Amino acid sequence: MKIPYLAIRTAGMTAAVAIMLTGALASTVSAAYDDMDAVSLAEKMVGKGYTASGETPSEGFDASGLTTYIFQTLNYQMPRNLDDQFTMNKPQVKSIADAEPGDVLFFGSHNKPSFSGIYTGGGKMVLALSSKSEVVTRSVNDFKSQYLGGRRILSAKDRLRVNLILTAQQYLGVPYDFGAKYGQTKTFDCSSFMKWIFNKYDIDLPRVSRDQAKEGTFVSRSNLAAGDLVFFTTRDSGGKIGHVGMYVGNGMMIHTFGEGGVKFSTIASGWWDDHYVTARRVIR
Hints:
Shape: elongated
Distance between the termini: 35 Å
Order of helices and strands: HHEEHHEEEEEEHHHEEEEEHE
Largest sheet: 6 strands, antiparallel
CATH superfamily of the largest domain: endopeptidase domain like (from Nostoc punctiforme)
CATH topology of the largest domain: endopeptidase fold (from Nostoc punctiforme)
CATH architecture of the largest domain: Alpha-Beta Complex
Strand content: 25-35%
Number of helices: 8
Radius of gyration: 19 Å
Structural class: alpha+beta
Signal peptide: 1-31
Number of strands: 14
Helix content: 10-25%
CATH class of the largest domain: Alpha Beta
Keywords: Hydrolase, Protease, Signal, Thiol protease
Number of domains: 2
Strand order of the largest sheet: 3-8-4-5-6-7
């Protein structure tokens, strides 16, 4: 059975889950982003225009406007002014080497910030860059000499959501194999993949999807958040749960099934929409 999917991966990509919805797929997915994680949302803004004082995707962004938009979308209080963001009462990130995905990094001179970026992992960040007239992904090392410090905005739970998704996307394209042996990464089935990813963050899941659907707490479809487990029936499951994936926001999940192995798929339309059963939140 061939399932439509969207898988985006670039050579050496170890940073963010970049879910760029286009064409017919985009029209089926909600434009609300508050169910996403900070890194995925930042990556989604890449290509938007640079506009002085801009703070929305439609008008474009300046540096602090991008940060304001990302974190306020995710229900974090965020001052609009760059200087105020730099001096927020949040944990400091003194060294670039200590940065974690979702941290806001500031650059300038004489302790005066002139721009900022959202760290997305793997030495990369997303920022609204005036010289490029758009939101771009750049290496933090390009601006290392101008680094002033950073602020850790995300809660521990939201950092976990980011890291679960970043870890899962490292396996994009790994082949699907029903009944794949747990503990190896040459192949996965849906539940061994979820068990493998969550176990890396000390969340122990049962081996099969039907049992995983009993873990954590129920979450309604309208309240899904990045990192939630989503469950489905399949042609061979006799009307019972037979498939699991991890919700990544904006109507998408990462999972493995059939052709293409580990991939991103929409749950907002098509097969997975029609066969959706329930979701569980196992992030404690």
